[in-house]
Amino acid sequence: MRTIAVVDDNPSMLQGLNRLLSAHGFRVRTFASGEAFLEAYVECEAECLLLDIHLGGISGIDLQRQLISSGRELPVIMMTAIDNEVTRQEAFDAGCVAYLKKPFLSKLLIDAIGRIP
């Protein structure tokens, strides 16, 4: 069973993604901030990170950059409700494997996770 870590500062989004991913057979760990994820990173044993870009505190893009600079390789799917070309390019430049604009179809998320080796 693959473990997916989800970082989003919206409690409803966290709850919805937890239900969706659990229903598709994933183990899910949710975090309300990038800082909370960093504190629990080693213990959560995530194989994929679903990461909101616009978080209170450290942004999703900055969190991704921190993970890479510390040598932590983890496939990251970025998601945002505030979509524009600059943000999209920053997300891909930071190393995300997929980019989803909220609200997104659950199939798009499950397909993006399925493409991760």
Automatic annotation (TrEMBL):
<dbReference type="InterPro" id="IPR001789">
    <property type="entry name" value="Sig_transdc_resp-reg_receiver"/>
</dbReference>
<dbReference type="InterPro" id="IPR050595">
    <property type="entry name" value="Bact_response_regulator"/>
</dbReference>
<feature type="domain" description="Response regulatory">
    <location>
        <begin position="3"/>
        <end position="117"/>
    </location>
</feature>
<feature type="modified residue" description="4-aspartylphosphate">
    <location>
        <position position="52"/>
    </location>
</feature>
<protein>
    <submittedName>
        <fullName>Response regulator</fullName>
    </submittedName>
</protein>
<dbReference type="InterPro" id="IPR011006">
    <property type="entry name" value="CheY-like_superfamily"/>
</dbReference>
<keyword id="KW-0597">Phosphoprotein</keyword>
<dbReference type="Pfam" id="PF00072">
    <property type="entry name" value="Response_reg"/>
</dbReference>
